Amino acid sequence: KSGSSLGDCKAKKLASNHAVDSKFVDAVVFGGSHKLSEFKLDKTRRPVQTLKAVIKDKADCALIDDSEKNELSHIDGGSSLKVLWSSAELPPMAVVAFSSAPSADRAKFKAALDSLCTGEDKKTCEKLGIVLLKSGDDSPYAAVIEAYD
Asked: Which residues on adjacent β-strands are paired with residue 16?
C-alpha cells in the first residue's frame, strides 16, 4: 500500500499463491534480480486470499499474476493497492501433447488447435478467458527454459 519499489518489500511479509516453485519465481519471474528468500513468504492458496492479505494488513506485499492484478478494481479495498514492480512478460499458456503420445495423434491434435475457439466455440472460449488457440512450437519458451535450467 505504501511502498514505491520491490525493494521496499524485502525482509517483509510477501503473500503469494505462486510460490510453489521458488526456482521458477527466482529465475524466471524475478529474472535473477531477486529471490523469494529475501522476503518473509506467506504462501496463500487462492488469488483473492493473497490480495486480501495485503488489503487487511496481514501481509506487506503480494506477488500476483496479471489476472489477479486485473481483479484489483473489483475487490473491496483493492483500489488501495498499487503495483510496485512487474516482471518481463511470460510466454502464453501452452496446451501440450506429451512425447509419449503417438506422433500421428500429436500431429492431429496440433492441426485441430487452429479451428478451436472459432465460430460457436468462440463465446465459450471467451467465457473461459481464452483469447486464441493456435498451433506452434517451443520457441516462445526457449528463454524461460534456459533461465529455469
From this structure: 43
